[in-house]
Write a structure and sequence with these properties.
35% of the residues lie in helices and 18% in strands. By secondary structure, it is an alpha/beta fold. The strands form two sheets. It has a seven-stranded mixed β-sheet, sandwiched between helices. A two-stranded antiparallel sheet has the order 1-2. A hairpin with a 2-residue loop joins β1 and β2 (66-69). α1 (9-18) packs across α2, α5 (82-93) runs parallel beside α6 and α9 (230-242) runs parallel beside α10. The protein starts with 8 loop residues before the first helix and ends with a helix. The relative contact order is 0.12. Bound molecules: S-adenosylmethionine (SAM). Residues 75, 77, 81, 131-134, 136-137, 153-156, 159, 178-179, 197-199, 220-221, 231 line the site of S-adenosylmethionine (SAM).
């Protein structure tokens, strides 16, 4: 659709630029192509100049080459989280990736099995996306891996509604509640991949985030407590109860938080390593549940 006469493209670009949109030309093109009517376009430009994230205005975000439906008030999936998806998918596609990244692998990882972990050879690996938001991570894993048994959880009703749309094609189940609480007990000891991009911004740093996030994304999606690791610690402590032997927990975190996150993983009986991407400014901590049952007893002591 081309811009209606009373909203010429150049006027839209000028308004977007004045509102601080760095990629005003690209944004104008996207808004024009998404609007169904001139009134629709005018309303979308207004919302964007008021500071709403572009993705919430458009109603979708691009993530791992997919178009993820996005509702207002739901966390916008970030490019850096594509690294979490890639790391998780690699563990299923090529489990030997466990030993193929010497620069990023901690010494503890050297003791990991070099063969496919049990469970990951199954035709439909069981994947849980905790703190799923729009469901982007789970949807991208389903697209990358083909057949998976996908379960996703979020505590926020708007996110759950949005995630249901995004994982429907993959036959995914989405539950509303606090971390593992709403998951069916039948998943215990069966999860091959547990992925989480949970909130990890320290409380006092939330105020320093750009207004798009601070004002238009729910605080619940950002605030990770005093040191940013409060939810990650809770999530990690219970992970060994849900992971299959040889299954993996992958969490996105920051470079600074990687060390304490690795320590938490080790305390919970997971064998940790760190993977990072300078290009995406992304850090992921990966923990593997040892295959021997006795090794996870530390988790139950937490
Ligand atoms: C940083 S956002 C990430 C969303 C999604 N994983 C992504 O990468 O786009 C964190 C999400 O965690 C959810 N959340 C926060 N605390 C939670 C909890 N205790 N249990 C389940 N979900 C929670 C928020 O509602 C939010 O959708």
């Amino acid at each position: 659709m081309s811009a209606p006469p009373h909203h010429p493209r150049s006027v839209i670009v000028t308004r977007l630029r004045a509102a601080g949109c760095v990629f005003a030309e690209d944004e104008a093109r996207l808004l024009i192509s998404a609007a169904r009517t001139p009134a629709d376009l005018a309303a979308m430009v207004d919302r964007r100049t008021e500071g709403l994230p572009l993705e919430q205005v458009l109603g979708w975000a691009e993530f791992c080459g997919l178009r993820i439906a996005l509702d207002p008030g739901v966390f916008v999936p970030r490019r850096r989280t594509e690294f979490l998806v890639r790391q998780a998918a690699a563990l299923v596609r090529e489990p030997a990736a466990l030993v193929r990244e010497p620069a990023a692998v901690s010494r503890k990882a050297a003791s990991l099995p070099r063969k496919a972990a049990p469970g990951l050879g199954r035709p439909s690996p069981v994947v849980v996306d905790l703190c799923c938001g729009s469901g982007a991570v789970g949807a991208a894993l389903a697209a990358a891996l083909g057949r998976i048994e996908l379960h996703a959880v979020d505590i926020d009703r708007a996110a759950v509604r949005c995630a249901r749309r995004n994982v429907a094609d993959a036959g995914g189940h989405v539950y509303e509640g606090d971390l593992y609480e709403p998951l069916p007990a039948t998943l215990r000891d069966r999860v091959d991949l547990l992925v989480a991009n949970a909130p990890y911004v320290p409380t006092e740093s939330v105020e320093l985030l750009p207004p798009e996030a601070r004002i238009h994304e729910p605080r619940l999606a950002l605030d990770g407590g005093t040191d940013g690791l409060v939810i990650l610690r809770r999530l990690t402590a219970a992970a060994p109860l849900w992971l299959a032997p040889g299954g993996h927990l992958l969490v996105e975190t920051s470079k600074r938080q990687a060390k304490p996150t690795v320590e938490t993983f080790a305390r919970c009986g997971l064998v940790p390593r760190v993977a990072s991407s300078r290009r995406l400014n992304a850090t992921v901590v990966i923990g593997t549940r040892p295959t021997a049952r006795a090794d996870v007893s530390a988790a139950s002591r937490l």
